[in-house]
Amino acid sequence: MAGNLLQDVPIHLWQRTRRLVSLDISRNPIEVLGVNSFSGLEKLQQLDISGLLLKRLNPRTLHGL
């Protein structure tokens, strides 16, 4: 999903991918990551958010990863 035109991370995206261990959403024009952006991804071990255009990141967004 890296280098696409994703502008947000809809929570419903992960409902069927709960076993995901690696996620690369880098180099996308995402400005905000919400509290529930990665909820349900308990198995996630690697997350690449480099190159995002983040203006806001709630501290709880990455809690539990």
Automatic annotation (TrEMBL):
InterPro entries, A to Z: Leu-rich_rpt, LRR_dom_sf
Pfam families: LRR_8
Name the UniProt record assigns to this protein: Uncharacterized protein
